[in-house]
Design brief:
Blueprint: H1 9-19, H2 21-26, E1 29-34, E2 37-43, H3 57-73, E3 80-91, E4 99-109, E5 113-124, E6 127-142
Antiparallel strand pairs: 1-2, 2-4, 3-6, 4-5, 5-6
Amino acid sequence: MFTPKDPNFKERIQHKMLANNFMQYIGFKATQIEAGKISGELILEEHHLQQSKFLHGGVTATLADLVGGFASFTLVKDNQTVVTSDLKISYLNPGIGQKVLAKGWVIKAGNTLHFAEAEIICVNNGTETLVAKGYLTFAVVNIP
């Protein structure tokens, strides 16, 4: 359990998500915003797929970065942000289905670095398959 440093973190996250142009472009929507945890979903469309009609690895990495980053962002002060400093993705299964679920959570929140994990899950006709795990580090940055 984490205690947010900003009591208005949910509103701040929602505002930042609306301002995230790439998130809006791919169509990712948050479904849960909690201190240190973000979940959301993406309805799969043709432009999310690679040549074999699987979820593209770049989209998978983007989703892990989004949920891990926003989970980390829930735990910083209102005059701070986070930026990705390290991202590792383990691709476990082909992403096949109609929808993608993305879950990210902080495992350690420090003063300068936050460590997070993410899971990317495809839903195909009601069956969930773990497509990838993400391991991420975010640097905490003061906003001037």
